Amino acid sequence: MLIGVPKEIKTHENRVALLPSGVTELLRHGHQVMVQKDAGLGSGFPDDLYKKAGATIIDSADDIWEKAEMIMKVKEPIEQEYHLMRDGQIIFTYFHFAASQELTEAVKLSGAIAIAYETVEKLDGSLPLLIPMSEVAGRMATQEGAKYLERPMGGRGVLLGGIPGVRPGNVMVLGGGIVGVNAARMAAGLGANVTIYDISLPKLRYLDEVLPANITTMFSSTANIRNDIANADLVIGAVLIPGAKAPKLVTRDMLSLMKPGAVLVDVAIDQGGCFETSKATTHEHPTYVVDNVVHYCVANMPGAVPYTSTIGLTNVTLPYAVQIANKGWVKAIRENRELEFGLNIANGKIVYRDVAEAFDLEWTPLTKFLSSLN
User: Fold this and answer.
1) CB–CB of 179/134 below 8 Å?
2) Segments in the chain below pLDDT 70
3) Alpha-carbon gap, residue 319 to 247, rounded angstroms
4) Domains of the chain
5) What is the pLDDT of residues 266-283, one digit of tens each?
6) Is 96 a catalytic residue?
7) Which of 43, 92, 140, 336 is 20 to 30 A from 317, alpha carbon to alpha carbon?
8) Is 124 a catalytic residue?
9) Which residues are annotated as a binding site?
10) 235 pairs with which residues across the strands?
């Protein structure tokens, strides 16, 4: 199979979908790899390393999209790439379709095969291709939140860890998954008072046992969030419903209860955001203010630490990419249930229910779709 790796063009997205070592592995299985010039440079992997690994360096992204049977990316195609997608072409990347009807319609119209990193799912319900970036984003959420609490950045001037004789900051983490736990651990490590919220009592019992003593667990309800948000210096939104829109846990009217200069960090922005006032931002312009509350809603947070993020991501995506390349996408998803969950749109049909329901579009059950391919 001919595999293409275009350079990411989303604002300040420096990650790359394949390491030079991944090129070597794909070539070992008999495949060919094209990498766009400077695609890995932002992550610390120059073209020479890809050439030594056996990749062909291509100047133009258009040429890669035109020739490649499978495109490997990090972020979803953006508007200027929509016309490059084509019928039958496999695109393996993060899509987060529920956040964009425009993207959903564009992929559907193209006839491309969209296999989404974020919905590849193991039988235990874990999301192996989302975990490493969730770990990065969770840790970054606290790091960025602490930064934007600084007065020169628009925050209220609170040091999360406090100092002797001065109380530490208060951090609310909404969601007890990978993002939330990593955010909470980082905040606790800085010395903040942290409360982590979730709707699963078994999960809260587990977290209560394993997390540091300065992290309190709390059942996630509108009443509890509304009651506690007035004391929060930093609120981190870390909820996830795989493939679906995130629930709005912090409403516009709750902002009036918050301290001026408090910070909201919405890690769920890729799935539409879990704060009612959230809108996607970029690393170039990461924040905005609503009702005196600073909002940080960067949709590709791990892109700011591309060396770490690229290695973490490609460690988990490469084995699946090899399976798809070796077997073709139909056989690969039939033989691997984890990849089956990753198929969102194919041949102009939406086969992932939550994506269709997000925009009230027609849904074709995957079993019915696969049987039609026989």
Assistant:
1) yes
2) 243
3) 32
4) 2-119+305-372 (3.40.50.720), 135-296 (3.40.50.720)
5) 999 988 899 999 999 999
6) yes
7) 140
8) no
9) 15, 75, 134, 198, 203, 220, 239-240, 267-270, 298-301
10) 172, 264
